[in-house]
Write a structure and sequence with these properties.
The complex is a heterodimer of chains A (about 325) and B (about 525). By secondary structure, chain A is mainly α. Helices cover about 80% and strands about 0% of the residues of chain A. In chain A, helix 7 packs across helix 8, helix 10 packs antiparallel against helix 12 and helix 11 runs antiparallel to helix 12. Chain B is of the alpha+beta class and about 525 residues long. In chain B, about 30% of the residues lie in helices and about 20% in strands. In chain B, strand 8 and strand 9 form a beta hairpin. Chain B starts with a helix and ends with a strand. The chains are: A mainly alpha (about 325), B alpha+beta (about 525).
């Protein structure tokens, strides 16, 4: 129980610091939302008036705490650019990114665990070598590059899909999911490679343990030992790694949404940064930070759940 | 045990959160899936899909929208008492007729019968007065605000609106066309705009699409298409790929490379972007405060080879702050004022005391590829006369603040367009005390000539004076004028009636399907 309270406090403090840093970052980089909003033709008076209307004439800390108090009460403010509530914009875009993250996560788990077990337990030396070589290569390919390759070869050359022709889930669920498969794979593939590598070495090191030899000498079959004992132990580090991956997949979407032109929150985040649309940036940064902290927290819990030895630390 | 339960609970909560996040929207009505038959152009019905390269991330309020891309679309939704046509003339819109008094001080507009706003409200003289007042008070286009500030009185009698001016202004009617007529007391223009145009606003989805539908109650002939969906790509490559796949009916502002790579049987139309692209020089910093140096730069730049390198020769050479769509003022001779001459450039530099050349930085907004391309070629060309230029690419917002706002730059490549259809939209900014005079151009002769032109009530005389202004800019080499960029439009071959405007707009109401 104490643990939960502690973690919750960490979450709150992290979000506080992250949101404050995001807020302050805009004080350092050049650019003013009013120049963007009013354009090149606006008079200085009009800019001043708008600054006042948006409250930008006040000191930065006052603005921050004003934003914070609104946020705590569930009011994320209004976008400077679109003039609509940030909450509505997030409600519209978050599902897209969430779907992408979920899909990517599902791919990671569904593909990496069987592959990893197979790679870890194969006795062929050649297979083992080629798997680890292939793994190394795939692991070092960044998702955006995979995305670009996919767009080019599958989209432009083979014309299997139209890059950029995203269909919103409000129009059709199946088409939306269909469009998200490739970007989800692009994020997942390097993750899969990493997980496979980890699971493989974890299984191999378990196979060298004394208990395996003991079981073998007692006549258990290799397959049975693998299933009964080795996997259980070998999966422990992988589980927490996968949980952390869930956080990284979300952040991986920042680039992939650009490559595949997916209108999720990451795309909105980048556009809002260049527009200096503070309320939108703040809200998205907080959502992403919260997701990362929560997922890490969940990873911790899962780890303890899987391995009773590290409980009550 | 508690922890175990909690952990499971948390894990489920996370998943559930994800799922409900996605689930919320299932209630929204699914739409027929004709959007997806990507390989065949969406010919269904009398509607088109237009691809655009930027989001309409602006207020949609006609007085507050600033982005050229937003204005381009909203031109179909809003109208003034008069509106420009593709020839650059003004035709009656919400007004059915107008008259200008002999002395140019009084304008009388007759309100057209049966003009209805998109929200069903009829348009009255009161709405017109409200629109003028709101525009004068809130418009972000300072030229319009200045022009409207000359109004001493605006009054209505039945359906006749009389506007009195304190001083004659031959351009006044062009500013009237910028005053979009909006219903009095309607407060949601920023997100749900209501006007009188041939199309009405239906919906906007951030970074996804923007939908207009035919205004059934339009007083005139109106639009021929039932629906126009603007699909937002925000990425030129993605936009082009979608176009090439045949999913779009119309895409404007394509580059020559894109046109060459287009393979899906589109018709390609060529127009001009209607902007003045130049190497703008900060006339207040050394060495550009020296006219000889500026002239040397003009001689050192070979615009013809620049055009052939960047756009296979497409584009129009300019020579001054005016583009050819303004036929009345544009003088092609100015484009030849500084023929490419390296020796002459070197001579001028020597005379100015820069025999060994100098170095400077060209600050370019990184989001405008044509400007970046031009800058790259300029750097190469200037090397020939010993000038070492560096390119610094900056984000658009940084450009606006640092270069345009604080004038903290040496040189920049960008393009200026005209917010209203008159010469002063392009020329007013070079008056020495104009707050948009980014380059700190300071020439008493120019100021005087421009002031005379503004004060002139005679159109022919005014045109002559504006032309003189353009000559002065050329003579003093205010900037290295380059080109009006070529603008390519790819269009579904069945779609007819496309018209280029001298403004940055696309009129959807003239498009129709030929059967």
């Amino acid at each position: 129980m104490k643990y939960i309270v502690k973690k919750t406090c960490t979450l709150i403090i992290t979000l506080f610091i992250v949101s404050l840093l995001a807020f302050l970052a805009f004080q350092i980089i050049p650019g003013d939302p009013t120049t963007d909003l009013l354009g090149t033709e606006a008079t200085e008076e009009a800019k001043q008036a708008l600054r006042q209307e948006l409250g930008l004439d006040r000191p930065v800390l006052v603005r921050y705490f004003d934003w914070l108090s609104g946020f705590v009460r569930g009011d994320m403010g209004e976008s400077y650019n679109y003039r609509m509530p940030v909450r509505d914009m997030l409600a519209d875009k978050l599902p897209v990114t969430a779907l992408l993250t979920l899909l990517s996560f599902v791919f990671t788990i569904a593909l990496s665990i069987p592959l990893g077990i197979w790679a870890g337990s194969t006795r062929s030396r050649i297979m083992d070598l080629s798997i680890s070589a292939l793994d190394q290569i795939v692991m070092s390919v960044p998702p955006f590059f995979l995305g670009m390759l996919a767009c080019y070869f599958l989209g432009n050359v083979l014309k299997l899909f139209v890059p950029g022709n995203f269909v919103s889930y409000t129009v059709s669920w199946s088409q939306c999911l269909g469009y998200l498969i490739l970007p989800a794979l692009a994020i997942a593939i390097p993750r899969i490679a990493m997980t496979v590598k980890m699971l493989r070495s974890s299984i191999q090191s378990q196979l060298e343990q004394d208990y395996v030899r003991t079981s073998r000498s007692r006549g258990s079959s290799r397959g049975k030992i693998l299933r009964r004992h080795v996997l259980k132990n070998a999966l422990i580090p992988v589980i927490s790694f996968l949980a952390v991956s869930a956080a990284e997949i979300m952040t991986g979407s920042i680039i992939i949404e650009q490559v595949f032109t997916i209108p999720g929150i990451s795309r909105l985040l980048l556009a809002s940064i260049s527009n200096r649309d503070f309320p939108v940036v703040q809200a998205i940064v907080v959502v992403m930070a919260a997701w990362i902290v929560i997922v890490n927290f969940a990873a911790d819990l899962l780890y303890q759940l899987a391995d009773p030895r590290i409980r009550r630390l | 045990m508690i922890k175990r339960i909690l952990a499971v609970f948390l894990a489920t909560a996370v998943m559930a959160g994800l799922l409900c996040g996605c689930g919320e929207a299932t209630t929204q009505s699914p739409v027929a899936s004709d959007e997806t038959t990507d390989s065949s152009r969406a010919d269904q019905g009398n509607e088109i899909t237009v691809g655009i390269a930027q989001d309409l991330d602006d207020s949609l309020d006609p007085n507050l929208m600033t982005a050229a891309g937003t204005r381009e679309v909203m031109f179909n939704v809003f109208e003034g008492l008069v509106k420009p046509n593709s020839d650059g003339d003004y035709v009656c819109a919400v007004a059915s007729d107008y008259e200008k008094s002999e002395d140019g001080l009084t304008y009388t507009f007759t309100l057209r019968d049966g003009v209805v706003f998109h929200n069903g409200q009829s348009c009255t003289a009161e709405d017109v007065i409200y629109s003028f007042e709101t525009c004068a008070a809130t418009s972000v286009t300072s030229a319009v605000v200045t022009a409207l500030s000359a109004i001493t009185d605006i009054s209505a009698q039945d359906n006749v609106i009389t506007i009195s001016l304190s001083a004659p202004n031959p351009d006044f009617i062009s500013y009237v066309s910028s005053v979009y007529i909006i219903p009095k007391g309607y407060t949601q223009q920023a997100t749900a705009p209501v006007g009188t145009g041939p199309f009405r606003f239906v919906s906007r989805s951030v970074q996804e699409n923007f939908i207009l539908e035919r205004n059934e109650d339009y007083y005139g002939e109106g639009a021929k298409l039932d629906k126009v969906t603007y699909k937002i790509y925000e990425d030129n490559n993605a936009l082009f790929t979608a176009l090439n796949s045949g999913a779009l009916d119309l895409v404007a502002h394509l580059t020559v490379d894109q046109v060459n790579n287009l393979s899906n049987g589109y018709n390609v139309l060529e127009g001009t972007m209607n902007l003045v692209q130049a190497l703008y020089l900060n006339n207040a910093v050394a060495p550009f405060d020296n006219e000889l140096v500026r002239k040397a730069l003009c001689y050192a730049v070979d615009v013809d080879s620049l055009l052939s390198l960047t756009a296979e020769g497409h584009g129009t050479k300019l020579g001054s702050s005016m583009y050819p769509a303004f036929g009345k003022y544009f003088d092609p001779a100015l484009a030849e004022a500084y023929p490419y001459d390296v020796e002459k450039a070197k001579e001028l530099l020597k005379e100015a005391g820069y025999e060994d050349g100098f170095s400077f930085t060209i600050t370019v907004p990184s989001n405008y590829q044509p400007h970046v391309d031009t800058a790259v070629v300029l750097v190469e060309q200037l090397k020939a006369v010993g000038i070492d230029a560096q390119i610094q690419q900056v984000e658009w917002n940084t450009w606006l603040t640092e270069v345009y706002g604080n004038r903290n730059f040496e040189a920049t490549v960008c393009g200026f367009d005209a917010s209203t259809l008159n010469a002063s939209a392009l020329l007013a900014r070079w008056v020495s005390d104009n707050d948009k005079n980014m380059i700190n151009y300071n020439n008493p002769l120019y100021d005087e000539t421009f002031a005379k032109a503004q004060a002139s009530a005679d159109e022919a005389e005014q045109t002559e004076l504006y032309k003189q202004c353009l000559e002065i800019l050329s003579d003093t080499a205010a900037n290295v004028y380059i080109q009006d960029l070529a603008d390519f439009v790819a269009i579904n071959p069945r779609l007819q009636g496309f018209e280029f405007y001298p403004l940055y707009v696309i009129d959807m109401s003239c498009l129709y399907f030929a059967d």
